Amino acid sequence: MMSDSFFADAGLLFFAIWSIAVCIVSVTAFGSDLSASKAPSGSRSTNPQAHQNSSGKL
């Protein structure tokens, strides 16, 4: 009976550590993509004159 409890606790601990590791890897790999998608659309342009040339002139 005691070994069943030990294996259940070990499995739960393994699952918790595995979940944390997957979270860390995901944030490391995709963190810059997530922060870039939250930025306003005006701040994505690297060329400030692109907005000035197209404003109001047809």
Structural features:
58 residues, mainly alpha, 71% helix, rod-shaped
Description:
By secondary structure, the chain is an all-alpha fold. The chain is 71% helix and 0% strand. The model has no long low-confidence stretch (mean pLDDT 76).
Strand content: under 5%
The helix-strand sequence is: HH
Number of helices: 2
> Could you tell me the number of beta strands?
0
Judged by helices, strands and strand pairing, the structural class is: mainly alpha
Q: What is the 3D shape?
A: rod-shaped
Summarize the structure.
This protein is mostly helical and 58 residues long. It contains two helices and no strands.
Topology readout:
Layout lengths: L1 H36 L11 H5 L5
